[in-house]
């Protein structure tokens, strides 16, 4: 439209000048355009994930977990000004900030997501453990007792339910028929994210898996301020026992394992003293505001009871160990190394060897017999039975319940 008007009025030279100007402006624009700074490549987590999370959260504000509102006579908390104000204050105090918990939880989500995708029958238990721990150490940006692996990577299989991780020299290989419990711990400033799941590669035990997943979800849903631990155990038991598994034509009831439990968690202390048993019991202890709990349930096709069996891999310094004079100098220096590298966080023999310790067993067993270090043997139900586990960590905030380790996987 514009051009014909122009043509009629402007002479030939006029036209060339105009075109010159237009081209100039265009090149100006182009020249201007050229300066645009290069597009900052969006930071991606590699595969396997190995980039420290602070790179993705430069402001130190980490994702909030799943929020569940309190029920019954605690619903007022959600809207209470006073409680929300209290929470704001708490969040200003670096010690109690939720950010340490949420960073540990986000690391946990990424590490387990990779584990769920890559763990395959035929892999050795040792390489499975190393892949998980290398991921945790890189993503949490491990630094001494400030941040790191929260406890030994649990890789208990089949009738064994907890406290197995490979020791050096363990060449055992994951089998297609195995029921594998993967229990991963990540800590930031001693705030431990403790969450676990069960993997299988054949569908024989799908109902066992469903039963335990549902029982853990009941425990999480029913947990809350002023809830009595014994009652919560009863609700978990009810859900678990409403399932059965058919194996080779025989139907087995799913049993909650009566001598295992969920547990409260304190800074640098994996078992904070409160146990959430998986069966009804008369423990009148109440859950309290600010409590931080690992809600975990274990189901079994066996007796529904574990016994300690097999070689020990898991250890932890006894929290309030009596101060006993140590005659064995090797035990004295080993204790120094334990305090320096782990404090009261749980560890395993592989982690001790990573710090440079060798030929330490005599000294270690001396520390165990002196009651300074607790050994945690594998916990197993009867041979031939199968056990499953699911676990999440929850925080009983003044206003709401936060399932900090919840993910889109479970
Ligand atoms: O979560 C030395 C660890 N925990 C790692 C984790 O329940 C834990 O025994 C402890 O490394 C030490 C249990 N309950 C009785 C008190 C009734 C077990 C079940 C699972 C587990 C591994 C656990 C348990 N106790 N503490 C945390
Ligand atoms: Co736990």
Describe the structure in your own words.
This protein is an alpha+beta fold and 410 residues long. The protein has 2 domains: 63-311 and 379-403, Creatinase/methionine aminopeptidase superfamily (Creatine Amidinohydrolase, Alpha-Beta Complex), CATH 3.90.230; 315-375, Winged helix-like DNA-binding domain superfamily/Winged helix DNA-binding domain (Arc Repressor Mutant, subunit A), CATH 1.10.10. Helix content is 33%, strand content 22%. The strands form 5 sheets. Strands 1, 8, 9, 10, 11, 17 and 18 form a 7-stranded antiparallel beta sheet that branches. A 3-stranded antiparallel beta sheet has the order 2-4-5, with helices on one face. Strands 3-16-12 form a 3-stranded antiparallel beta sheet, with no helix packed on it. A hairpin with a 4-residue loop joins strand 17 (387-396) and strand 18. Helix 4 (99-118) packs antiparallel against helix 5, helix 6 runs antiparallel to helix 7 (229-240) and helix 8 packs across helix 10. The longest helix is centred in the first third of the chain and has 23 residues, at 12-34. Cobalt (II) ion binds next to strand 11. Residues 21-58 are annotated as: Disordered. Cotranslationally removes the N-terminal methionine from nascent proteins. The N-terminal methionine is often cleaved when the second residue in the primary sequence is small and uncharged (Met-Ala-, Cys, Gly, Pro, Ser, Thr, or Val). A divalent metal cation 2 binds at residues 194, 263, 296, 391.
């Amino acid at each position: 439209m514009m051009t014909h008007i122009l043509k009629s009025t402007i002479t030939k030279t006029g036209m060339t000048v105009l075109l010159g100007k237009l081209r100039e402006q265009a090149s100006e624009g182009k020249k201007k355009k050229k300066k645009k700074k290069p597009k900052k490549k969006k930071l991606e987590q590699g595969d396997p994930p190995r980039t420290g999370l602070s790179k993705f959260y430069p402001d130190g504000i980490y994702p909030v977990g799943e929020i569940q509102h309190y029920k019954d006579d605690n619903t007022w908390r959600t809207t209470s000004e006073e409680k929300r104000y209290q929470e704001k204050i708490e969040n200003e105090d670096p010690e109690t900030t939720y950010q340490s918990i949420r960073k540990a939880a986000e690391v946990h989500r990424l590490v387990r997501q990779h584990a769920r995708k890559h763990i395959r029958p035929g892999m050795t238990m040792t390489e499975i453990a190393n892949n998980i721990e290398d991921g945790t150490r890189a993503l949490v940006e491990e630094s001494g007792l400030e941040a790191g692996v929260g406890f030994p990577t649990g890789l208990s299989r089949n009738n064994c339910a907890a406290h197995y991780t490979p020791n050096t020299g363990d060449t055992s290989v994951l089998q297609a028929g195995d029921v594998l419990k993967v229990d991963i711990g990540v800590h930031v400033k001693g705030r431990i994210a403790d969450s676990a799941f069960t993997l299988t590669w054949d569908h024989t035990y799908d109902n066992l898996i469903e039963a335990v997943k549902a029982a853990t979800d009941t425990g999480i849903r029913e947990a809350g301020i002023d809830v009595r631990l014994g009652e919560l155990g009863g609700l978990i038991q009810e859900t678990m026992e409403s399932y059965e598994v058919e194996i080779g034509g025989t139907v087995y009831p799913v049993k909650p394992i009566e001598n295992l439990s969920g547990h409260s968690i304190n800074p640098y202390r994996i078992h904070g003293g409160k146990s959430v048993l998986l069966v009804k019991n008369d423990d009148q202890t109440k859950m309290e505001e600010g409590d931080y709990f690992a809600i975990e349930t274990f189901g079994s096709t066996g007796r529904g009871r574990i016994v300690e069996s097999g070689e020990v891999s898991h250890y932890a310094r006894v929290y309030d160990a009596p101060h006993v004079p140590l005659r064995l100098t090797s035990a004295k220096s080993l204790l120094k190394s334990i305090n320096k590298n782990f404090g009261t966080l749980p560890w395993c023999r592989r982690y001790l060897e990573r710090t440079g310790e060798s030929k330490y067993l005599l000294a270690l067993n001396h520390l165990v017999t002196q009651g300074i270090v607790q050994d945690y043997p594998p916990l197993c139900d009867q041979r031939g039975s199968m056990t499953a586990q699911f676990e999440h960590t929850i925080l009983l905030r003044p206003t709401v319940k936060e399932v900090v380790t919840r993910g889109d996987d479970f």
